[in-house]
Amino acid sequence: MASHDQSFRAGEAKGQTEEKTNQMMSNIGDKAQAAKDKTAQAAHSAWDKTAQTAQAAKDKTQQAAQAAKDRSCETAQAAKDKTQQAAQTTKDRSSDTAQYTRDKAQNAAGATRDKASEMGQATRESAQSGKDNAGGFLQQTGEKVKGMAQGAADAVKQTFGMAPHEDEHEHEHYPTHPRRDI
């Protein structure tokens, strides 16, 4: 019987071993499922955290880009305003310079007109004075020439004996009039 008993015990031991193996397998399966669930949950949590981090980075990048865009627009507007202000200042200075130049030219033209008028008046006065002097000079010259011609005529008359005698000053004798003493 020993063999029957041994067989029984061997069967019992085998049954117990199988039972323990099944329990262990069940425990290992439960632990594996728990580990799997925990890993899936950790992966899902990591995925969510990665998505949140990515969204936060995206939002921060968009905010930085918007801030840079706003600063760029402000800088461009400031540059535009400054350029317009400089252009207006240049325009105003140019206008002032042009007005100053016009005023200066008008003043110079007025002074030139006045000077020309003064010179014209002086020229007219000088011409009138020259005319008056020339008239007097010509009259004097004419009288001198007339006197010289009379002297020459008297000299010719005396040479030809046609000169009047000193007692005949009342009548002038001309070559066409005969003398009375002849």
From TrEMBL:
UniProt feature, compositional bias: Basic and acidic residues: 11-21, 68-83, 90-105, 164-182
Domain of life: Eukaryota
Matches recorded under Gene3D superfamilies: Helix hairpin bin
Compositionally skewed regions (Low complexity) per UniProt: 40-67
SUPFAM superfamilies: Apolipoprotein A-I (SSF58113)
Stretch forming the signal peptide: none
Region Disordered, annotated ranges: 1-182
Protein name: Uncharacterized protein
